[in-house]
Amino acid sequence: MKTVVITGSARGLGLEMAIQFKMKEYNVVLSDILEDKLKEAKDLLEKEYPSRGRVISLVCDVTKESDLQRLVDETVKEFKGVDIWINNAGVNQPMLPIWKLEADSINRLLDIDLKSTIIGSKIAISQMIKQGYGQIYGVEGYGSNDATMLGLSIYGTGKRATTYFYKALANEVKESKLPICVGVLSPGIMITDFLTHSLGTDSFALPEKTKKVYNILGDYPDVIASFLVDKIVQNKKNDVKFNWLTNRKATIRFMTSSFNKRDFFN
Ligand SMILES: NC(=O)c1ccc[n+]([C@@H]2O[C@H](COP(=O)([O-])OP(=O)(O)OC[C@H]3O[C@@H](n4cnc5c(N)ncnc54)[C@H](O)[C@@H]3O)[C@@H](O)[C@H]2O)c1
Predict the structure, then answer these.
(1) Is the CB of 112 under 6 A from ligand 1?
(2) pTM
(3) CATH of the domain at 124
(4) Which atom of ligand 1 lies at the shortest distance from residue 195's CA?
(5) Partner of 36 at 20 to 30 A CA spacing, among 3, 12, 129, 257?
(6) pLDDT at site 241
(7) For the segment 158-193, what is each residue's pLDDT rounded down to a tens digit?
């Protein structure tokens, strides 16, 4: 039986991907900083999604290298190896221009959204080199394609760099002829707590204009997780990108938006 580790999997996309893997009989390692939500997530997987796969959960702050190392060590102790590792944990930024952000917020954002994905990959790949197999994925987001918008500049900086990082890691894996696959997941816009909370906790109101766009392009994370997990379990290639909101899909959504009665925010 294969094993997947997902950071930030107490809610949102991480939890929905965990459900999909559990239904496909994977052993699932849930991890997050939110201890209570993590317990709820483990109960949910065990009670509502019975399968041969087992679930363990670990409190892990991805900004702490020792927590990430413990996540690998406990997974290996319990399940012998790590087949798939997903650096999913991430936070949104306060909707402010760069000069109005506190330096502490900028540091915290980049620690979670960028540095943790680098350190997480380094720790996971070291284990995968030892065991001789494995797949590692990062999650793209706004800015990955160079887009800019007031209020998303630091988040976008992190995601743009994340995209570069996985490209570079995939290249190093290829040049070193390692039996490991590296890739990115591009989930588009998901209706999760992320959209209305900065730094994971502070809630803010979305402007009406933004809500309109999210109603057209957004989807609930279970739909996107199902698409992404199907791609991941079939993947045998290095340097891949699994993209939910393609340009074609976005164009069709805009063209048909006058028939679109979705309202995620009321
Ligand atoms: N929601 C969107 O529209 C959207 C779009 C593109 C990309 N993404 C990316 O998708 C990923 C998941 O986002 P989501 O929408 O499910 O958000 P979410 O807020 O629902 O879930 C994120 C999870 O990460 C956890 N987390 C935050 N800081 C952490 C830390 N230091 N250590 C461990 N866990 C931590 C949170 O507790 C939460 O459970 C993120 O990387 C995000 O940047 C989201």
Answers:
(1) yes
(2) 0.98
(3) 3.40.50.720
(4) 1
(5) 3
(6) 98
(7) 999 999 999 999 999 999 999 999 999 999 999 999
